[in-house]
Amino acid sequence: MTAFHKLYIGGDWVDPDSTQRLDVISPSTEDSVGSAPSASRADLDRAVAAARAAFDTGTWPRLSPAERAQHLRRLADGLRAHGSRLSTVITDEAGLPTLASTADSSIGLLTYYADFIERYDFAELRGGAYADVVVRSEPVGVVAAILPWNSPLAIAFMKLAPALAAGCTVVLKVDPLTPLHAFVLGEVLEEIGFPPGVVNILPAERAVSAALVAHPGIDKVSFTGSTATGARVAEICARDLRLYSLELGGKSAAIVLEDADLPTVIPGLAGAACLNNGEACVLQSRVLAPRSRYDEVVDALSDAIAAMPVGDPHDPKTAFGPLISEQHRDRVEGYIASGISEGAQAVLGGGRPQGLSRGWYVEPTVLRNVDNRMRVAQEEIFGPVVSVIPYDTESDAVTIANDTPYGLSGTVWTADFTHGMEIAARIQAGNYGVNTFGMESCAPFGGFKSSGVGRENGPEGFAQFIEKKAVHVPKGTRVNSDGSTS
């Protein structure tokens, strides 16, 4: 067991205000794997005050981009040095297979933004009609970064890396189901001597999270989670005219075109339909297959998923670990039952795997005869459930793919790459793949419609933590990239 007793606030480990604790239960064994303090409203106020002081009077926003980049690279080195421990802790608390619990993407984001700010023009000189104008890029201020329980470290750095690069300070609010990795992060920050108050870590329940969103000391909220909660975050922020960005749910469609070579595309498609135990907002959970090849696609996809091992997430061979909690497993099983009651058939899975009497496991499930109007096709299940939906024409496929409240991700699988790009242009989604699936540090990630507001990653993610200021100067003034004159 990993037990933590203090909170990381203001660069120090401090005693929590409350004696309430979070008991962290392993999704794979149902045993306790650790515990941590549950932050109170007083702890929240202290964390915001520390972040506020670090921004208003501290050095962080006043460092040169090169100096901040150096800190980001040192943090990346610290994550790399503690990578094995972080992976073990995340697998313990989230049930993610070891391949999905590494710090690699976090290290990549820190490295990308360190390089980015060293070449970014923080001051641009524009010639006006009556005066010249220096357009400055300045940090937005104190950021509340609110995390979900799936892929917690990776999602944390989709917020932390650009916010820190911009010069913001952060209160990192971690989910009460998966708090342990964040305490390891705090130890890394302490070990490398990260400037105090720049990152403050709070594990907290829902009431404290809501108070953080509404806190007057917060300038910007960056939230990842459900669409319903995201809408509430937006309402609170709008009331106070506070900036926000939201990365929310998805119900993405993978379109298999008539010309697709199944032995070539099925491995990538199966992985995209099943990543993170099915607990991923970008999951390709609807597979659209041409009616003429429907049975062929169902069989090939089912065979590929059936070959992916289910079991102990610490075993490097495991592809499917458990779901995060017993309550969530019940929810996923309810969706499977709903699909079957509406006429779908489970050609793979549909129950609980044999030989795994402990842990919140669900068999990877493939449903055939799914109509896009069914709940399993319209609502985000967040589990290893794939619905295979037939279509008659490519136009039908595009219509079905877009017939969802969400617009986060999607893929198309075809032997004709140029035609695949044409299909991509017709889909209402923020992240798309042609014969591949993924996310990159350099590219914007976010959704259309109910999948969110704003973008993460790339220059677009950096822009979420920047305010633009126009400074008018006399004609002919020479201005350097950092805003100084010469």
Automatic annotation (TrEMBL):
Entry similarity comment: Belongs to the aldehyde dehydrogenase family.
Superkingdom of origin: Bacteria
Record carries keyword Acyltransferase: no
Residue ranges that the Swiss-Prot or TrEMBL entry lists as coiled coil: none
Classification via CDD domains: ALDH_AldA-Rv0768
Species for this entry: Streptomyces violaceusniger
Keywords: Oxidoreductase
UniProt keyword annotation of Ion transport present: no
Gene3D superfamilies: Aldehyde Dehydrogenase, Chain A, domain 1, Aldehyde Dehydrogenase, Chain A, domain 2
Family annotation (InterPro entries): Ald_DH/histidinol_DH, Ald_DH_C, Ald_DH_CS_GLU, Ald_DH_N, Aldehyde_DH_dom
Pfam families the record matches: Aldedh
All residue ranges annotated as the Aldehyde dehydrogenase domain in the record: 13-471
Protein name: Putative aldehyde dehydrogenase
Single Gene Ontology MF annotation: oxidoreductase activity, acting on the aldehyde or oxo group of donors, NAD or NADP as acceptor
Record: active site: 247
